[in-house]
């Protein structure tokens, strides 16, 4: 199986509009970050999208990806769902609704924000979704998917584990119970919004270093990164062995 990072940035992306800091003005393409999303390719070559933010269209074009077979949603914030309308060309090409898997609260928000996708009489050209309530572990395209509950500030959201890889975005707390689901990983992908200043809803660098020492995955990749992190080349030299910044377009085989 394979995971491709379509985006590794925060809700503002990097560069940030109007910012002239070292990160936002960097010429290194690894410092340019679309909003966070990943694409899983299964053994059967099916494509599972995790989150669909405002950069989805460009992410697909830049990566020369042409198919999405299902969508998993971590939570309902705009930087994770507002690109769902851009699934339309794939829906039209395949002539069938796209399947979206999310907890009920998130599915309800999808209905509220895209009511035209669920209308009995649809406007020509509207997208069409099949919403599935996630209530626990499930199988999709012969791939076992394990939702991992984490706290994003005051709200409960989902990460996902596939085999020995886990993808956790927008986390600020993980319970001991859920940490049991994160043992013996080859890859742990986790959000890290910045280096030093605490954030009410996201891990920062000291948090993820502690998590790495506790869970001891073979490798940890950081995502959902803001311009308050340093440039990629500096951070790769500063980070402890085993921890790396993810970047848009990075591919992991697992």
How is the topology of this model organized?
Elements lengths: L1 E6 L29 E5 L5 E4 L5 H7 L7 E3 L5 H4 L6 H7 L3 E5 L1 H10 L15 E5 L4 E3 L2 E10 L2 E8 L2 E4 L7 H4 L7 E5 L13 H11 L3 E5 L8 H7 L4 E3 L5 E3 L1
Parallel strand pairs: 3-4, 4-5, 5-6, 10-11, 11-12, 12-13
Antiparallel strand pairs: 1-2, 1-14, 2-3, 7-8, 8-9, 9-10
Protein name: Beta-lactamase
Pfam family, one: Lactamase_B_2
What would your notes on this structure say?
The chain is of the alpha/beta class. Helices cover 20% and strands 27% of the residues. The chain is built from 7 helices and 14 strands. It has helices at residues 56-62, 78-81, 88-94, 104-113, 176-179, 205-215, 232-238, and strands at 2-7, 37-41, 47-50, 70-72, 98-102, 129-133, 138-140, 143-152, 155-162, 165-168, 187-191, 219-223, 243-245, 251-253. The chain has a 7-stranded mixed beta sheet. Strands 7-8-9-10-11-12-13 form a 7-stranded mixed beta sheet. The longest helix is centred in the last third of the chain and has 11 residues, at 205-215. The chain starts with a strand and ends with a strand. This is Beta-lactamase. InterPro entries: Metallo-B-lactamas, RibonucZ/Hydroxyglut_hydro.
